[in-house]
């Protein structure tokens, strides 16, 4: 996942080092200033090594791959690209947001076992070298992505309680207008608890 600068530049079929160099050129940044978000998982150990060997910085996430993808696509974010293996539902949700931000997302299906792959094939999904683009994952541009924080995260703050009030923070992305809105809400608990 990248912001608009990665459209037509970054390609999942290329080695990560090449993608980092191409994105650096497209953004006008030195490679050393490119920051790559990746879930901190054993399955990503080699990927993290390759990112660091390319000279880019890493932002290792304990969770929150949706927020990581969204932040990589946002203007002036602390992350330039988000890579790695995540869940398919998270990929679809992220694609909704990325379309609103004008960013770039690609993905491949990575079944955990033969049974999972067969169920996917039976459902008409494509595997092996097929690369899913944003329009394959989410049809149309009239998408809406909404997230409200439960715990503090990269994208929104978590629920806070102060006396009889509960405070929540939400983000809303609208695909048709490319608008990102932040909503801070104050809830009087006596009205609904």
From TrEMBL:
Signal peptide start-end: none
Keyword presence, Hydrolase: yes
EC number: 3.1.3.11
GO molecular function: fructose 1,6-bisphosphate 1-phosphatase activity; metal ion binding
EC class of the enzyme, as a word: hydrolase
Record keywords: Carbohydrate metabolism, Hydrolase, Manganese, Metal-binding
Domain of life: Bacteria
Transmembrane segments: none
Family: Belongs to the FBPase class 2 family.
Cited PANTHER family: FRUCTOSE-1,6-BISPHOSPHATASE 1 CLASS 2-RELATED (PTHR30447:SF0), FRUCTOSE-1,6-BISPHOSPHATASE CLASS 2 (PTHR30447)
Name recorded for this polypeptide: Fructose-1,6-bisphosphatase class 2
Organism expressing this protein natively: Microbacterium ginsengisoli
